[in-house]
Amino acid sequence: MRSPFDILEDYERRSLAHATPLPERQFSADIWRGVGYRVGTRRLVSDFREVAEIVPMPPVTPVPGAQPWLLGVGNLRGNLFPVIDLKQFLEGRRTVLQEGQRVLIMRQSGGDVALTIDELYGQRSFEQVQAVEPGELAQGRYAHFIDRAFRNETQDWGVFSLALLSRTPEFRQAAA
Fold first, then answer.
1. Which is it for strands 42-47 and 70-76: parallel, antiparallel or unpaired?
2. On the chain, which terminus has fewer CB atoms closer than 10 Å, C or N?
């Protein structure tokens, strides 16, 4: 008579004989990854290295005499940082703030900056074969920050450079 352990061992041996291995995971240098979000009608992605965090909209203290796109100063874990309405900076139209609003935290020399967005899509990955011309995504003020784009099915995603944004003189001078 076989012991329960012998029976289980036999089950394991027989099941492993029929198991198919998982496909080998392949990483490609041709894959670009970033954080996807929407500003106005544009779907944008920014490199993971440019986005430090994504957090709920903090309470904001207005700054008198500042540009209208500077919503004020926020506080995250004891660190003060400016909160910028990205759509108002780029398009001149204010972002409608909603319950559960999220902001992108961008690191720059001198401290962090929070950027409001209209919608957060999360991680996006694109293969180089999906690269397209930015076209309409890079019109107006967006042209300074979008130099390429990717097409995922029917959606075009502009690669928005937060590093270029942080070096823009107008962006750095929020005082009116």
1. unpaired
2. N
